[in-house]
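SEQUENCE-TO-STRUCTURE ENTRY
===========================

Backbone structure tokens: a row of integers, each naming the local backbone shape at its residue.

Task: work out the structure tokens from the sequence, keeping to the layout shown below.
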Amino acid sequence: MPAQAKAPLLDASIVLDGVDFSNSSNEVNVEDSAAEHDVTGFQGGGYSEETTGLKTANITINVFQDYSGGSVHQTCAPLYREGTAFLVVIKPDDEEISATNPAQAMVGKLYKYNPVSAKVGDPQSMTLEVKNGSKHGLKEFTKKEDLEAFEAEI
């Protein structure tokens, strides 16, 4: 069996509502999960049987606060206040979308926003929790044109 490539995440691309947050971020987590339901019958042989239910998707991004125009605060505050759905696109590398650099995309909403958050002397930072905000859930794209078609659809 060939060895699997192991690479640190160094040059991720993080785009939230069309604004590049890559230089303002230092951590990202893309999660897609499903509810679990016990469907064990009486003659289950001593093991529980599980099935999946509804799925949910979340993207968390640790960002450094920035109040300048077109940056973190100017982007996130109105999205949170107005409850607006927006597109988030995450790629492992800031290169073209491909099979080895897939884009994870989701239409999401912010349900919490901390405009000021830090200990004395520390940089202001916060974790943005973007939760799925559409029927589309989390999508993976390996071709730029497929992501563009998705953007046009939403």
